[in-house]
Design brief:
Layout (H helix, E strand, L loop, with lengths): L2 E5 L4 E6 L4 H10 L7 E4 L5 H13 L2 E6 L2 E5 L7 E2 L1 H4 L9 H8 L1 E5 L12 H9 L3 E5 L2 E5 L7 E3 L5 H12 L4 E5 L5 H12 L3 E3 L5 E5 L7 E4 L4 H14 L1 E6 L7 H10 L2 E4 L3 E6 L1 H4 L9 E2 L11 H9 L4 E5 L9 H7 L3 E5 L2 E5 L8 E3 L3 H13 L3 E5 L2 H6 L3 H7 L3 E5 L1
Parallel strand pairs: 2-15, 3-14, 6-7, 10-11, 18-19, 22-23
Antiparallel strand pairs: 1-23, 1-24, 3-5, 4-5, 7-9, 8-9, 11-13, 12-13, 15-17, 16-17, 19-21, 20-21
Length: 423
């Protein structure tokens, strides 16, 4: 199993490009199931989760052609099975996103209950209730969701809690439903917006995307389209925090500041300088490697977009471990997303957890040690901590990182980090 070896203490300088967003690419890949005509996608990141989704689609009969490094064509004209088996979806929660498209186009689907990072329960009941409101007959038997519907009907659906994948699944299903579907308390994340933009290019009729009320008027069929996946705001945010912590100056190309307002505000509050234009973000900082107390502690509280993203919580906890003063990090989205705390403590971090809040007291320095990644964003936070720790840090079980960060060690090396992947 691969691991990363990092020698801390090097300021980061230079330019790198931000990849396409995994959390946008996954539902858009599933959108190919809504039409018999080809869908061409650009800026698709090469990640483990993307490869898993591609294998699932190929299993169902989708023909996928790799056009260049990050561009692919998907042809779902000859689907021969509407089943997503357990062995293919057990490691990735996003597999549930085939449920809505297959049911809407073919009238039947059998999908295994999904897996993914062990950061919380993340139930799929809102997906099921929404599809039932649209007329689907759904049963859960032997770990599988089995759904049937002659043709889905438009409905008004209120979601008890904001759910990104639930909004995406129901939006795709509604695109081919008869009549109008109104999704209330819908997710507003940029990845939901990106999916909607792709669906509109395919011929869907969608209004209100980016607000908490999305209206979808169903059409008889969708058609061919081309779409470039939006940049990964979480990858960009992670490198921004790395630049702030280590010091130096880092420019992120193909990054959109308008997707990172909450993150940028907190970085500026910590003392970093953040500048941006239409397609790049630059972060400058003295960093803790240059001067003790260079960063100020910042308290964060996660909430649905446009508030502070849960996927950046662990990275800011890493920043606070070496910042000046005391800060709190409160997690409101997932109930089990502090598993990185114990590993950070192995690096010398001073963190106490009380319920869904972590109290972090900044220290002068961290010390290298061997740590273990527990989930995707926790892995990233350990990399950030290792970049400023004294000595060598070894991060094991980095397959989590490969699920969501494209060529992470290569990009950090371009910025001057001393990081190596050991097979």
């Amino acid at each position: 199993m691969d691991k990363l070896v990092i020698q801390g203490g090097v300021p980061l300088n230079g330019e790198i490009s931000v990849s396409g967003a995994k959390n946008a690419a996954l539902p858009i890949l599933c959108a190919s199931l809504l039409t018999a005509e080809p869908l061409t996608l650009g800026n698709v990141p090469q990640l483990h989760d993307i490869a898993t989704m591609r294998k699932l689609l190929v299993h169902m009969g989708v023909k996928i052609e790799q056009l260049d490094n990050n561009q692919i064509s998907l042809d779902a004209s000859d689907i021969h099975t509407c089943e997503a088996p357990y062995d293919m979806v057990k490691t990735m929660r996003a597999s549930i996103l085939v449920l809505g498209p297959l049911l809407a186009r073919f009238g039947h689907v059998r999908v295994s209950l999904p897996g993914g990072c062990a950061i919380g329960s993340r139930p799929v009941d809102l997906h099921i209730k929404g599809l039932q409101a649209m007329g689907a007959d759904i049963r859960i038997e032997h770990g599988y969701i089995e759904a049937k519907a002659d043709r889905l009907k438009g409905a008004r659906i209120f979601m008890d809690i904001v759910t990104v994948t639930g909004t995406e699944n129901l939006m795709m299903a509604a695109a081919l439903a008869e009549g109008t579907t109104v999704l209330e308390n819908a997710a507003k994340e940029p990845e939901v917006v990106d999916l909607a933009e792709c669906l509109v290019k395919m011929g869907a009729k969608i209004e209100g995307v980016g607000t908490d009320v999305i209206t979808v008027t169903g059409v008889a069929n969708l058609h061919t389209a081309s779409h470039d996946v939006v940049c990964d705001r979480i990858e960009a945010g992670t490198y921004m925090v790395a630049a702030a912590m280590t010091g130096g100056e880092v420019k992120l190309k193909r990054a959109r500041a308008d997707l990172l307002d909450a993150v940028i505000d907190k970085l500026r509050e910590s003392g970093a300088v953040v500048e941006h234009d239409s397609d790049s973000i630059t972060v400058r900082s003295e960093g803790v490697l240059q001067r003790q107390g260079a960063l100020r502690s910042v308290s964060v509280r996660t909430a649905p977009h446009p508030a502070f993203p849960t996927d950046m919580q662990a990275q800011f906890m890493a920043l606070n471990t070496v910042a000046d003063a005391v800060a709190t990090v409160t997690e409101t989205i997932f109930e089990n997303r502090f598993m990185h705390v114990q590993e950070m403590q192995r690096l010398g971090a001073s963190i106490e957890v009380e319920g869904n809040t972590a109290i972090i007291r900044g220290r002068e320095f961290l010390e290298g040690a061997t740590v273990m990644a527990t989930d995707l964003r926790a892995s990233a936070s350990l990399v950030l901590a290792a970049l400023v720790a004294r000595g060598e840090t070894v991060i094991e079980r980095i397959y989590h990182l490969d699920r969501g960060y494209e060529r992470l060690e290569e990009k950090l090396s371009q910025l001057g980090a001393r990081i190596q992947r050991i097979k």
